Automatic annotation (TrEMBL):
This is Ribbon-helix-helix protein CopG domain-containing protein. GO terms for biological process: regulation of DNA-templated transcription. InterPro entries: Ribbon_hlx_hlx.
Amino acid sequence: MMPAAHFDAGSARTGSKMFTARLPEPLHDALTATAAVLGRTPADLMREALIKYFEELDVSQVLAERKRERQRQEQEMLSSVRAAATVGK
């Protein structure tokens, strides 16, 4: 059976969100050992990992949105050039 780990994944930005995760025992042991070496709690490490994950996700979504917008603008410009070329014939 996997050990349950309780984490407060809240932050000043997102507010407090409490959840329970069932981690495979090797992962739970590694998380606990790493936290002990760093003098932190497993919950602190998980909170930081989740915050970092969602911040990176936000960045990748913004970059993808910018790319789509740039492609849309390029397509509009190309359509305008084609239309002008057709009228000029």
